[in-house]
Amino acid sequence: IGFIFQDYALFPHMTVEQNIAYGLVGLKKQEKKQRIQQSLKLVELLDLQYRYPHELSGGQQQRIAVARALAPKPKLLLMDEPFSNIDGQVKRRMMADLRNILKSHNISCIFVTHAKEEAFAFADKTAVMIKGRIEQLDIPAKVFNNPVNLTVAEFMEAGNLASIRHSQQVLDKVHHQWPRNSDHKGYWLFKPQYLSLNPSLQNTGITLMNSSYTGRNYQHEVAIQMNKNDDSSIINWKAETENPLDISIGTNLALEYLAQPHWLKN
What we know:
Distance between the termini: 38 Å
Number of helices: 8
Number of strands: 13
CATH class of the largest domain: Alpha Beta
Shape: elongated
Radius of gyration: 25 Å
CATH architecture of the largest domain: 3-Layer(aba) Sandwich
Structural class: alpha+beta
Largest sheet: 3 strands, parallel
Strand order of the largest sheet: 1-2-3
Number of domains: 2
Helix content: 25-40%
Order of helices and strands: EHHHEHEHEEHHEHEEEEEEE
């Protein structure tokens, strides 16, 4: 079993070569040297074998930690948030490179992270664990789009939630015909990308609060007042659009949901 620590745990008094050699116990000198070279070649750092960890960048240190973990040729690799100290483009490339290495060498991996974006991009299957219990295990798209319960939906920030108490009011406001599930306790999940926003001349109790561009799409914050004279009945939803809205902040909206809401057990 190989292990990659969150802080990489490279030995500061050892060179890159010595760090990788640390786990190669019982091998002959020539075989050990060959294994080190193979590992460094995998992570594309052959020219750094005589450097010390403090002479490397964060991304290079992580690659050396990967090389050290893979040198003994493990059947299973354990990783504890190995990408948390790396930013942006370097992180995305490292994740893709490591995934390709593991796939090409048929090495299974258990990867622990608090960042769902990392889990979705890296894993074939994602397990959501809450308080030591696995709530859902499935391919990333199913975990995000079809959470099995409220706990997973909230953890994944999967979309807008409406309790059974508000369900009929919400369904009326988004002009969606759906049978009221009064026999069960639970929530409806509405995905932001399927909410259609249009200005309304009527006082709908739905107001556009904010709009921002994320680099991929436009995100909008919408306030929905369930009861006309009760400010405490306001719930806040998010909507996503590919194009900017020609709607001013504070405008009354008419909402329409263009898909089927997902039912969640409480």
